[in-house]
Amino acid sequence: xxxxxxxxxxxxxxxxxxxxxxxxxxxxxxxxxxxxxxxxxxxxxxxxxxxxxxxxxxxxxxxxxxxxxxxxxxxxxxxxxxxxxxxxxxxxxxxxxxxxxxxxxxxxxxxxxxxxxxxxxxxxxxxxxxxxxx
Length: 134
Fold this sequence. Notes:
Layout (H helix, E strand, L loop, with lengths): L9 H9 L1 H9 L11 H5 L8 H46 L7 E3 L7 E3 L16
Antiparallel strand pairs: 1-2
Helix pairs in contact: 1-4
């Protein structure tokens, strides 16, 4: 854990530590495969850009604002992806159980979870429609 001195703004330090270049430098120095570790001697000697405290604060505030905007966009995109995944699943399910012809006459499949299927379709047990390969 690192605690900033009174010369370093906490938010600025946080963003410095997660910056791509800093992470890349630390990653290049890690050792151990299951739980990679980095040497404090190495990390502590890495150069750090240090603008005036007020500028650090301004940079941190700017990054807080921009990352919040980005996080909101990501959340919207994730919600859209979730809806598209649901639509994809529904489309596959519908084509699989109802076919592609919306005018096709339907009949009861005799299988509760399948419901009605196109009249010209046959319902078979899986074991009679495929071969099991061991």
